[in-house]
Amino acid sequence: MSGKQRRKDRNDSSQVKLSKLLSNILRHSAEKRGLEIGDDGFVKLNDLLKLQQFKGKSVEDIQFVVENNDKQRFSLKTENSELYIRANQGHSIEVKDLELEKITDHEQIPTVIHGTYLNRWKFIEKEGLRKMNRNHIHCSIGHFGDPNVKSGLRANCDLFIYINAKKAMEDGIEFYRSSNGVILTSGINGCLKPEYFLKVVNKNDIILFPRDS
């Protein structure tokens, strides 16, 4: 491996670590760390950088992560000459105004996919999808409605759950689209039961659900 490639790998690793740190604090622990978080989820970037975890990091470092994050997890805004940052979705802390777009017609989201891991399938098959400590269950939408293109999912997912959004919405379950295109739902009492699964496939597109009768 060349010196240039090693430097690139180190830089990539550093950016991933910084992205994960931002996600953890902005989604889950901003208040515990003494950060003032607005109803829209934004915190002052300068306040964030004062935390010990960000020692040695600059505004430019944060901007680079925000601009180059493959899933556009974060947003920046300037208000009264002050720079603010937020996570676009994935919170466990309460955020009242995340600018979520409510889906009013299932045809707006013809293909809704939740990506997860095969070792969780036995529980999911019995209990359904749960939002766990987050405010929503996270899903992606097939690229231009193409069910064969699983865009916006974690690269290491090996289980794909296709959601029957039409049936779910008919039963009063609400869906939202975040500012970075993630489809969010709280299901019913934080759960989306297997009755709302269209199909479940593994990474090799082998169908696990519905089972052959």
TrEMBL record:
UniProt protein name: 2'-phosphotransferase
Described purpose of this protein according to its UniProt entry: Catalyzes the last step of tRNA splicing, the transfer of the splice junction 2'-phosphate from ligated tRNA to NAD to produce ADP-ribose 1''-2'' cyclic phosphate.
GO BP terms, alphabetized: tRNA splicing, via endonucleolytic cleavage and ligation
Entry keyword annotation includes Cytoplasm: no
Entry EC number(s): 2.7.1.160
Record field: catalytic activity: 2'-phospho-[ligated tRNA] + NAD(+) = mature tRNA + ADP-alpha-D-ribose 1'',2''-cyclic phosphate + nicotinamide
Lineage: Eukaryota, Fungi, Fungi incertae sedis, Mucoromycota, Glomeromycotina
Keywords: NAD, Transferase
Family note: Belongs to the KptA/TPT1 family.
Top EC class, one word: transferase
Any one GO molecular function term: tRNA 2'-phosphotransferase activity
Keyword Cell inner membrane appears in the UniProt entry: no
PANTHER family: PUTATIVE PHOSPHOTRANSFERASE (PTHR12684), TRNA 2'-PHOSPHOTRANSFERASE 1 (PTHR12684:SF2)
